[in-house]
Design goal:
Helix content is 41%, strand content 16%. It is of the alpha/beta class and 338 residues long. The protein has a domain of 219 residues: NAD(P)-binding Rossmann-like Domain (Rossmann fold), CATH 3.40.50.720. It has a seven-stranded parallel β-sheet with strand order 3-2-1-4-5-6-10, sandwiched between helices. Strands 7, 9, 11 and 13 form a four-stranded mixed β-sheet that branches. Strand 4, helix 3 and strand 5 form a beta-alpha-beta unit. The termini are far apart. The relative contact order is 0.14.
Length: 338
């Protein structure tokens, strides 16, 4: 069975390719024209170079394929309003859906986001039944992913689209070449994070999410969504874990929601002067003050989703950052991580 993977040279996509090959699938990797395949070096796969926004390229790439795993996305949250998010995260999904139906693809695994469901507390984390509550942030990334999910579920209902949706949380691991999620980890190690906010997240090992994508080809139920998360931690505890793993001192200042929003306002003014995007915008400040906690129980029950120890995932990520030049001269010999 041959599977087309979009975003195959990206963070999650490159892990999906590895998981597919390990499970003995044939892989066709959709590679955006002009982008590097370094994340796939040494792997045995068929490559297709093209542009996902060109419908003809999608059709050609799907030739001879039985299934599709769509990982390509725009995950940027700065600027908060960004029409490119809608082009890639929503308009592209409609093109893929058209091609999937025309090519009679057996299974379409779509990678969304856990933010398409309501987050909960540490005691009662959000599930696939939790009502969406992230629209308040006014982020095109979140809004476009939610709109794409709603569109796909409507296609299941009305046109029997064979889609299964995976909803990852904050992913950690090696091969994060952008870096994306790893930017926060690197910033903590390099002491560029002034403090920790009141909120938190659900942290997942990227290789676990990749294996769930592959499992969904056989075990995922059409029209169902599966949150693929991991460990729920407040930012203070997560930053301490990062610091302990990297042998550096964690940030000790607690940043209130008011202070975070004030900082975002100041940085916005600075960005007008410097013409450079701010490191923190209003939406990011609000998100950092909320606890985005989720349960992965449904994925565990139906997709055989297993969780890698978060310390191990961090170790793998940090080793990769160091080996690839993202962490230069950051090692410290410290013992105080309290």
């Amino acid at each position: 069975m041959k599977v087309l993977v979009t975003g195959a040279n990206g963070f999650l996509g490159s892990h999906v390719v590895r998981a597919l090959l390990e499970a003995k699938y044939e892989v066709k990797a959709f590679i955006l024209n002009g982008t590097s395949e370094n994340n796939l070096k040494g792997l045995s796969y068929e490559s297709y170079h093209g542009n996902l926004l060109q419908y003809e390229d999608i059709e050609n790439a799907l030739d001879s394929c039985d299934c599709l795993i769509h990982t390509a996305a725009i995950t940027d949250v700065s600027p908060a309003r960004n029409h490119i998010s809608w082009t890639i995260n929503y308009d592209l999904v409609k093109l893929l859906t058209k091609a999937v139906k025309k090519k009679s693809i057996q299974k379409y695994i779509h990678v969304g986001t856990a933010n398409s469901f309501g987050f909960g507390t540490l005691e009662q984390p959000g599930t696939e039944e939790s009502e969406f509550n992230c629209g308040k942030y006014k982020l095109d990334y979140i809004d476009s992913k939610k709109a794409a999910q709603d569109y796909l579920l409507d296609e299941v209902k009305n046109n029997k689209l064979p889609v299964v949706i995976l909803n990852p949380t904050f992913m950690i691991g090696e091969l994060d070449s952008k870096p994306g999620s790893g930017e926060m980890i690197i910033s903590v190690i390099q002491k560029k994070v002034p403090g920790y906010s009141a909120g938190g997240r659900c942290f997942a090992a990227v290789k676990d999410v990749a294996k769930a994508c592959v499992s969904a080809l056989k075990n995922g139920r059409t029209g169902e969504c599966y949150i693929t998360g991991g460990v729920n931690l407040c930012y203070k505890d997560f930053f301490h874990l990062v610091a302990k793993t990297a042998n550096v001192t964690p940030p000790k200042l607690r940043v209130s929601k008011f202070l975070a929003i004030t900082m975002a306002g100041i940085l916005k003014c600075v960005s007008w002067i410097t013409r450079k995007p701010p490191k923190l915008n209003l939406a990011m400040a609000k998100i950092s003050s909320d606890g985005h906690y989720y349960s992965s129980q449904k994925a565990m029950d139906e997709l055989e989703y297993k969780l890698t120890d978060l310390s191990q995932a961090l170790q793998e990520a940090i080793r990769w950052y160091q080996a690839n030049g993202y962490l230069l001269n950051t090692n410290e010999s410290e013992t105080d991580h309290s």
